[in-house]
């Protein structure tokens, strides 16, 4: 019996965790490797087995992606969020996993630049990964996590090119613009106070490299990044993204209207 994972993407911040259920003959092995990678001391051995078994790799990746909205699996990965994000960027190979990986990262972070934290941040019902990650980015100044997010987004966007028959050109441009806007917004967050200048410069350089990598795939994005920076760049990217969304909505409306008149 083939396995499947019930779709399990992060909810808006006001929605509680749900469970994720994985069915099939490989469930036990999948959970074993997943637990070893994130919980036990011999994760190197588990990663070796993970890499050598394509079917197992697919199962584990779906579990990792699902974990961002599963109470049980979330408890396992929450201490290694950066590693989980790296895994998503590095080993998401199928079109569905790439799409879900992009969605899970973007929806978990939310809109950037981040607002100031409020008293609601400590509400038991809302202290999910969504809020934990936002606090780490804003308050703790986790430069490494920012960089891991930027690198994962860049890798996922780059992998989308392989599936040009599964994604429209307009949708691909929209994904690129959204990723660049998010990465550019990471640069606007407060600088870490516990890191030296050289370390901060290194992480900032990596984030800029990610932006350039995506922009080189799109001439319009490249021109925007050359001519603007900081908050102005984020504002221009937001405007461009909205225009792209409006264009896609209009094209879809015209297609539906045409089909209705056939």
How would you describe this protein?
InterPro entries: COPB1. This protein is globular. A two-stranded antiparallel sheet has the order 1-2. With 262 residues, the chain is mainly alpha-helical. It has twelve helices and two strands, in the order ββαααααααααααα. Helix 2 crosses helix 3. It has one domain.
Principal-axis shape equals: globular
Could you name the ranges where pLDDT drops below 50 across 5 or more consecutive residues? 1-19, 114-127
How many whole angstroms does the radius of gyration measure? 19 Å
The number of helical elements comes to: 12
Number of DSSP E strands? 2
Neighbour order of strands in the largest sheet: 1-2
Mean pLDDT: 75
Order of helices and strands: EEHHHHHHHHHHHH
Through-space gap between termini: 41 Å
Helix proportion: 55-70%
InterPro entries: COPB1 (IPR016460)
GO cellular component, one term: COPI vesicle coat
């Amino acid at each position: 019996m083939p396995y499947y994972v019930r779709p399990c993407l992060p909810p808006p911040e006001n929605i509680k965790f749900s469970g994720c259920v994985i069915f099939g003959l490989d469930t036990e092995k999948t959970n074993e490797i997943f637990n070893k990678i994130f919980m036990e001391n011999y994760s190197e051995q588990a990663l070796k087995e993970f890499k050598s078994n394509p079917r197992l790799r697919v199962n584990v990746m779906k579990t990792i992606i699902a974990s961002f909205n599963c109470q049980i699996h979330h408890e396992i990965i929450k201490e290694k969020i950066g590693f989980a994000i790296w895994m998503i960027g590095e080993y998401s190979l199928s079109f569905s996993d790439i799409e879900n990986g992009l969605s899970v990262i973007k929806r978990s972070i939310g809109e950037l630049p981040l607002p100031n934290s409020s008293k609601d941040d400590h509400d038991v019902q809302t202290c999910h990964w969504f809020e934990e990650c936002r606090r780490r980015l804003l308050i703790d100044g986790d430069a490494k996590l920012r960089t891991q997010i930027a690198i994962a987004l860049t890798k996922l966007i780059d992998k989308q090119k392989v599936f040009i028959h599964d994604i429209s050109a307009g949708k691909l441009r929209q994904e690129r613009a959204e990723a660049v806007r998010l990465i550019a917004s990471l640069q606007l967050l407060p600088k870490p106070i516990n890191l030296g200048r050289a370390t901060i410069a290194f992480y900032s350089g990596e984030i800029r490299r990610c932006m350039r990598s995506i922009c080189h795939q799109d001439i319009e994005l490249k021109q925007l990044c050359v001519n603007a920076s900081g908050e102005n760049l984020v504002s221009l990217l937001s405007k461009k993204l909205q225009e792209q969304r409006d264009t896609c909505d209009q094209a879809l409306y015209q297609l539906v209207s045409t089909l209705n008149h056939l």
